[in-house]
Amino acid sequence: MLHAIPQLTIAAIDLAAAFLFMYGLWRMSSPVTAPSGIFVAGVGMLVAILASFLYVFGVSAATRPYLTANIGLAVVALGLGGGASWWSGRKVAMTSMPQMVALYNAMGGGAAGAIAAIELLGNKAQGATQLVVTLIGALIGAVSLSGSLVAWAKLDGVINKPLRVKGQQFFNGLVMLVTLSIGAYIAFVATGDADRLTAMPGLIYLFFGCALLFGILMTLPIGGADMPVVISSFNAFTGLAVGFEGFVLQNPALMIAGMVVGAAGLLLTLLMAKAMNRSVSNVLFTNFGAVAKHKPSNIKGSLKPTDAGDAGIAMRYASKVIIVPGYGLAVAQGQQKLYEFVKMLQAAGVGVKFAVHPVAGRMPGQMDVLLAEAGVPYDLIFQLEDINDEFSSTDVALIIGANDVVNPAARTDKSSPIFGMPILNADKAKKVYVVKRGEGKGYAGIANALFYGDNCNMVYGDAQAVLVKMIEAVRGLGLAVAA
Amino acid sequence: MDTQIAISGFLALYIFMLAAFSGWVIIGRVPAILHTPLMSGSNFVHGIVVVGGLYALLNASSVREQMIGFIAVLLGAGNVAGGYAVTDRMLAMFQPSGHKPVHAKSRQTKSHHPKKG
User: Fold this and answer.
1) What residue of A is the nearest CA neighbor of B47?
2) What pLDDT is stored for residue A128 in this prediction?
3) A404 is catalytic
4) Do B107 and A344 touch (CB under 8 A)?
5) Catalytic residue among A226, A368, A404, A427
């Protein structure tokens, strides 16, 4: 059985690839082993792609006249798609990582949708189960494609306002209903008479069109602060779509990889939603962000501006400093200067730690990457649950570009929209400095009682400019002592 | 894919269930500090869809199938290459204390026993 050898080779290599994916993700459990983990997964991917070319030995008679062209197209598509993405991935700025991931995710969803389209238009699904699974995979893949593209446009600033109109949810529901009805009709008709499927390409195109439209409509009203949840869930969607198409193609490697990613995306989605104190359905299907102006009833005291240099010197003479970076730091491109300042403090014997909130950034963990890029060692970076108890024994908490994630209203004010959200207890530090552009409010549009506290001073200005002043002040101090 | 044993409905459910459970457990171990590379890494893993795209394209028997298959492989390859490139780049940035970063001048004395080999 000579013709079985290529098939067995593909099956064996796909099995190995599935193992390498899981093992690679397993090695992501620590920053030490993670780089080798992605390499291992990469090897699995490469051999799986190369082995796919063995499919040429198993093609049907109808395909033979097209085979040479098919191989050529495959090589060109791999080179073009892979080359362009590789290039963009190598040069993209770390601050733009969320939109890049959204874009790659859209590609995955599109690929899954395209495979489903071939199966449907070519009438290749066998039996009702396969047909239904193909349709579900097509729906999820198409939603993930158009939804991720809208998410990309929002993150990249192409669309800068959430689009909300009256009756939107009703209309979105209607589009979903129409999509599902067309899908059900296709499944029903084609199950009865297989040839009917090839006779209704128009309906199949309409099905895809509606699914794509739903993806767009669903993502348009979601605000910028909710993007971590949106990206995580579209990642899960694409994973599911890939897994379902894997079943249709009877390829267990796709099924396993897709489902693992689906689970990963779901886990991250839930974590992000929890960190924002919102339910996933609340983010995806209701319109937060346009919260009514909340009047905080019990904020006492006043905002006390102070000089950047004074704040810098105060930290120089502290023994323990915790820095809370927020997305505003990244917007001001201040990470490098921040780490320069931290190194000066460390050289003076100050213990410095970074406290990162799960939703600091536009995707899960983005702030950690931005700090790592600036050279901050990962053993100085602590997550909310690991460091929150330390604030009360800390001399200075320096908050840069963060707001809602340190708002004590989340702990105390039951009427606040962010009540219950886990926050960093920066207000418990002996002294708090807040670096902020101006007196504006955070994403949620809620006043922050922390800023009015007796132990808090405001340092107004661009984060990078403020840090430069702090560095100069501390450096000047060192020179004065030396002289 | 005409493998000898077809994956029927229930067998598929078993695979999905076990894979989802494994994925949940494996991903649950990843520390929050690595969540961005984890996401781009899992993004890369679902790029395996390119294998399905290649199967569809290589078996194409009409111009329409060639066109859609070409798109599937193009997008899948983009997913794979981009996901790998960004994940690899990000993971290389995570260094422990005492490691001298290339671009930043460190004032600290060099650690005598760096953790990472």
Assistant:
1) A108
2) 82
3) yes
4) yes
5) A404
Tokens of A403: 């707001």
Torsional class of A428: left (φ above 0), alpha (ψ -120 to 50), beta (otherwise): alpha
Phi and psi dihedrals of A337, rounded to 5?
Answer: -65, -40
Tokens of A115: 């495979």
Q: What's chain B's average pLDDT? A: 83
d(CA B115, CA B117): 7
**Better-scored residue on pLDDT, A198 or B15:** B15
- Amino acid (1-letter code) at residue A21: F
Looking at residue A134, its pLDDT comes to: 92
Quickly list DSSP for A313-373: HHHHT-SEEEEEE-HHHHHTT-HHHHHHHHHHHHHTT-EEEEEE-TTSSSSTTHHHHHHHH
Chain A segment 88-147 residues within 8 A of B by beta carbon are: 88-90, 92, 94, 97, 100-101, 103-105, 107-108, 110-112, 114-115, 117-119, 121-122, 129
Q: How many A×B Cβ pairs under 8 Å?
A: 421
Query: Could you read off the pLDDT of A140-168 as tens digits, one per residue?
Result: 999 999 999 999 998 888 877 777 777 78
Measure the CA–CA gap between A326 and A308, rounded to whole angstroms. Answer: 18
pLDDT band at A371 (very low <50, low <70, confident <90, very high): very high
pLDDT confidence of residue A445: 65
Residue A291: its H or E element: none
CB B53 within 8 A of CB B96: no
Which among A295, A17, A83 has a CA at the least distance from the CA of B46?
Answer: A17
Nearest by CB: A121 against B64, B75, B115: B64
Q: Span B5-17, mean pLDDT? A: 84
Token readout for A62 is 């109808």
- Are the Cβ atoms of A7 and B107 closer than 8 angstroms? no
Report yes or no: A461 and A478 within 8 Å, Cβ to Cβ. Answer: no
pLDDT score of B106 more than 50: no
Given a cut of 90, is residue A80 above it in pLDDT?
A: yes
pTM, full prediction = 0.87
One-letter amino acid for residue A427 of the chain: D
Q: Does residue A282 sit at the B interface (CB-CB below 8 Å)?
A: no
- The partner residue sitting opposite A267, judged by closest CB among B3, B27, B84, is B27
* pLDDT per residue as tens digits for the range A18-74: 999 999 999 999 999 999 999 999 999 999 999 999 988 888 888 888 999 999 999
Identify the residue with better confidence: B104 or A306: A306
- The answer to whether B74 and A401 have CB atoms below 8 angstroms apart is no
- Give the integer Cα–Cα distance in Å for A211 and A214: 5
**H or E element at residue A397:** strand A396-400
* Chain-chain contact of A242 with B58 (C-beta, under 8 angstroms): no
d(CA A182, CA A210): 9
- Environment class of residue A288 by beta-carbon count within 10 Å: exposed (0-12), middle (13-18) or buried (19+)? middle
